[in-house]
Amino acid sequence: MKRAIAALRWMVLIVAIMVLNAPVIITLITSFKSDAEIVSNASLLVEAPTLVNYVHIFAMSDRFDILHFLWNSVVEASLGTAFALALSLPAAYGIVRFRVGLHWLFPQVVNQRAIPLIIFAIPLYLMYQATGLLDTKLGMAIIVCWVNLPLVLVLLVNAVRDVPIEMDEAARIDGASSWTIVRLVILPLVRQTIASAAVLAFVYAWNEFLFSLILTTRAAVPVTVGASFFFSASGGGVQWGVAAAVMMLSTLPPLLLGLFAYRHIGRSMTSGAIKG
Amino acid sequence: MAAARRSLNSRRDGWFMVSPITAFLIVVLAIPLVVDCIYAVSRVRFETLRAPEFIGFGNFAKVLFDHEFWGAMLFSLRFGLLVTAAEVLLALVLAIFLAPLLAKRSWLIAPLMLPMMVAPALVGLMYRLALHEFVGPIPYYFVLLTGDSPSFLGPDNVFWTLVTIETLQWTPFALLILYTAYQSIATDVREAAELDGPSTWQMLRYIELPLMRPTILAVGFIRFIDSFRVFDNVFTLTGSGAGGNTMSISIYIYEVFFRRNDIGVAVAASIVLLAVSFGLLTLLLRWSERQA
Fold first, then answer.
1. Which chain A residue's Cα is nearest to B251?
2. What letter does residue B26 receive in the DSSP assignment?
3. Cβ separation of B33 and A118 shorter than 8 Å?
4. Which residue of B9, B15, B21 is the best one to mutate when testing the A interface, meaning the one whose CB has the most A CBs within 10 A?
5. Total domain count, chain B
6. How far apart are CA A224 and CA A214, in angstroms?
7. Interface predicted TM-score (ipTM)
8. Are A102 and A149 in a shared domain?
9. What is the pLDDT of residues B128-151, one digit of tens each?
C-alpha cells in the first residue's frame, strides 16, 4: 500500500512536470523537425531530428536579426536589474534604520505591484517621445528597473531588517558615515539576498513584454517582442520550424537560470510574496 | 542610548538614502499620473499632443458608455477569478500530495518551477504552434485518442483555453509558496496534534489547512491581481479575439490608444481602471484582514 502511494506520487509528479512544461517541450521537439516533417508528422516523436532550423535563423539575419534582439535583452535586463538594486539598497537602509518613508514610500512601491501597468504606458510613451528615450536601450532599462522595484525593495528591506543594529552602531562609533556603512557593512552582509533578487529580477526583466511592445520599434527591440515580430512578419505562412527555434533561443537564458539558480529564485519568490 | 540618539540625529541621512528612489518614482509614476489626469479631460490625438483641448468629462462618459469597455472589464474579472481559484486548488493538492517527494529531493522543485521562467508573451506564441490545427501536437493527440479535436481557439472554447494556459503557467507559483508554507508548519505542532491520533484527513482539515490559511489568501491575492491585468499571453495568442471576445482590460486600453488614436479616451479608461483597482485592492485587503 505504502509503495503504491509512493509510485502514485512519482506518477503525479511526472505528469505535472510534463503538462506544466508542455509548451516548452512541444516547441523544443518541433524545433528539431524539418519543414517536411512538420507538415507530415505532428506527433512528439521526431523521425529525422535536424538542426537545420537553428542554422536558418542565422542565415536570415538581414531580415530577422536574432543576435541583435538577444543582445538588446541582455543589456536592458542587466542594466535594469543593476539600477533597481542601486536604487533599492540605500532606500532599504533609510527605510529600516531611519524609518524614513516607512509609511509612504514603502507601501507606495509595494502597491505598485497591484496596479495594472498599462495605466502608465500612455503617458510614458509620450514622455519618452518628448525626451528621445523612445526605442533606446537606456529607456527600456529604466522601465524594467521600475517594474522590478517592488520585488527588489521588499527583499532588501527584509534583508537589512535582519542585520543586527549593533553592526552599524559599531561602525558609526568609528566615525563611518551612513553611506560608508551601506557600502562596507550592509552590502557584504546582504550579498546573498542581492544575488537572489538579481537572478529573479533579471528573469522578470528578460520576460517583460508590454512596455517593450509600446516603447521599442527597431533599435532597442528585446527578444520577447522580436519573436512576435517574426510571427506577424511571416503572415499566414509561418515557418514553424524556424519559429520554434527562435522561441527556444529567446527563452534559453531564463530557462537556464531557472534550472541552475532555482534555489535563488525560489527564495526570492517566497519571501517577496509573503512579506510583500 | 547614545548610539540610538546619534542615529536619530542622522535622520537627515535617511532622507538622503531614500531620495534617489523617490526622485525616480516621481518621474516614472507621479508625472505620468498628472499627464493622465490632464489628457483625460481633453480632446487629444497624436497630432495635437502639445495642445490638448479641454472638454470636461466627455472622455469618461465615452468610456462608461462603451460596451467594449464593460466587456473587457468583465473578461478580466472572470478570467482573474477563475484562474486564481483553479491555481490555488491545483497547487494546494499538488503541494500536499507531493510534499514527501519534494522534501527528500529538493531539486525536483526546479522542473516544477520552470514554466514561470518563460516569458508569458512567448508562451502565447508557443501555444500558437502547440494548438495549430495541422502542425500542433495537441490537436494531433486529441484526434488520435478521441477521433476529433475541439477548435481550441474558436469562439466557444477560446476563453477556457486562455484560462487553462494561464493556470498552467502560474500554478507553479502557488505551488512553490504553498509547499514552503506546508513544510514550515512546525514539527512540534504536528507532533502535538498526532497525540490525539487524528486521521490524515483530520490532520489536514483541522491543523494544517488552518495554519496555511494566511498564505493561501496571500497567494490568491497576488495571483488575482496579476491575472486581472493580463496582457502578454492573450495578446500574442489571440489579440483581442474575434469581435473582441478575448479583450482584457489591458488590451482594451492598448487598442484604444494605438488603433483608435483616441488618447483622451484611452487615458480616461486608465483612470477608471486605476479607481477600480484601488477599490478592489481595498476590498480584498479588508476582507483578508477580517479572515486573518
1. A118
2. I
3. no
4. B21
5. 1
6. 12
7. 0.94
8. yes
9. 999 998 899 999 999 999 988 899
